[in-house]
Amino acid sequence: MKRALILLNRNNKIFNHGGHGEHGENQAYQAPRALRVPRGSSLRLIVAWSGLAFWLVFWATSVSAQQPAAVQSPEVGADRRVTFRLNAPKAQEVALTGEFLKGKTPMVKDASGVWTVTVGPIEPEIYHYNFTVDGVRIIDPANPNLKTGSTASTLASVLEVRGDAPSFYDAQNVPHGEIHMRWYQSKSLNSLRRLTVYTPPRYDREPRARYPVMYLLHGANADDTAWYRLGRVNFILDNLLAAAKIKPFIVVMPFGYGVTPGGPQAENTTKFGKDLVEDVIPYIEANYRAFTDRDRRAIVGLSMGGGQALTIGLNNLDLFSHVAGFSSGLGNAENFPKTYASLIGQPETANRKIRMLWVGCGAEDGAFAASKAFSEFLTEHNIRHTFRESGGAHTWSVWRRYMHEISPLLFQ
Fold it and tell me: pTM for this one?
């Protein structure tokens, strides 16, 4: 059925939009005397706004009628059982995948076309999940909380299951640091790049204070915001500082790609390392009140960033005294002697320079075998270090705990 919208224009013409008439669908003709409004009259403005309001209501009503019915998803119950819903009446098969599940869990469609599944109870944590609709992996359209990164492959929905008490990564009623996004010109890569910086509480109130710096690296397909958006490093450090368990320090989170994300990665660590050493560190030390000595400089990373932290840090012990890798992307163990030749060539010197060397990985992680082999390699060459074997897979739930664990070891 056609609908017509009748508006009164500035010349006292009636404009019939979308209606039927002798001369087509859009017509304008002189309004009857009873409807005419004098020029300059405030009534003319009221008529115009009334017409606009009518059109907006008409448009909103028409659009909303075409949208699928709203559903709540995810819905976390008091017993920590979680219900997921997806309105997809034409779908043939829908399944749920997530870090809290093993494999896919089928969902069931009701008479209104809404697919539903309830799982749990789920332990308090932050998880990522997706739906698979007729073989296509999608996010939960009812959930605005998303995991994003530098490539589309990392896109997922976020589920947070809260416990009875705040977790170590929750925002609590304590003094908070600040997150800064900064742009810098990388001479080594000839490009404008972004990095993220955390400054501890009271940084702006104590203009004479200087701080150690931890360079914190993200994993593959992520970006410089991952450690605070997904890892909540700022809240972890805020809470530790409030409990007097760590000393305040700056955290610098650079973009870990020296090449295009998703493309060939053979030269990535080399190019990123050059950007870090020649551009990022000088930029930070020129723009923040950072100590510039190696004893108060650390490099830490996860997955791809863990491999970068170990490779760059252990080959630049004149720059870094604290080095740590979580679930690190280490490559083939046969290449360790070549990659770390400068480290194992002078183990006594290396041990004097290293104040902390920490390697951790979850036993269910695909990177566990390489991490354990790297620890054995270090032991074979008399390099002092800590190897932390824990439960868990290749997930943020592991890496947040590692960050909470190693932060009190830094800069002591």
Answer: 0.81
Mean pLDDT value of segment 52-80: 64
3-state class (DSSP) for residue 175: coil
What's the confidence (pLDDT) of residue 58?
46
| Cβ atoms of residues 189 and 258 within 8 Å | yes
Task: Using only the alpha carbons of the chain, give its radius of gyration.
Answer: 29
- Closest by alpha carbon to 151, among 263, 265, 269, 307? 263
Are 356 and 324 in contact, with CB atoms under 8 Å apart? yes
For residue 127, the model assigns a pLDDT of 96
- Determine the Cα–Cα distance for residues 352 and 277; give it in Å rounded to an integer: 22
Tokens for 16? Answer: 């019939």
- Read off the pLDDT of each residue in 21-43 and give the average, rounded to a whole number: 44
> What is the full DSSP assignment across 118-152?
EE----SEEEEEEEEETTEEE--TT---EE--SSG
In the chain, the domains with their CATH numbers are 5-66 (no CATH), 75-161 (2.60.40.10), 178-409 (3.40.50.1820)
Query: Torsion angle of alpha carbons 91, 95, 97, 102, nearest 10°?
Result: -160
**pLDDT given at position 10:** 45
Question: Beta strands of 311-381 (E only): which ranges?
Answer: 322-326, 356-362
Residue 16's pLDDT is 43
